[in-house]
Design brief:
The structure is a single chain. With about 70 residues, this protein is mainly β. The protein has no helices and three strands. A three-stranded antiparallel beta sheet has the order 2-1-3, with no helix packed on it.
Length: about 70
């Protein structure tokens, strides 16, 4: 579903709107009700599996994990 970001040219309010039919749907500012809007370019981040995840750090008491070796084994 496309979510568009707008800025009202009359009052300056920035807002997002889910627009199902961009060619026909009329969008108005939720603050002042005017339709003099500027559509903004929205940025997004697509997560890539395996990237941007910190490497897990083992707990000092359980370097092999909590199911690994224990002192009482």
């Amino acid at each position: 579903m496309p979510i568009f970001e707008y800025r009202c040219l009359d009052c300056g309010k920035r807002f997002e709107k889910l627009v199902l039919k961009p060619a026909t749907e009329k969008v108005a500012c939720p603050k002042c009700g005017k339709r003099k809007l500027e559509q903004l370019i929205s940025s997004f981040l697509a997560p890539v599996e395996g990237r941007h995840k910190p490497k897990p750090v083992p707990h000092p008491e359980y370097p092999d994990g909590y199911l690994g070796k224990h002192d009482d084994d």
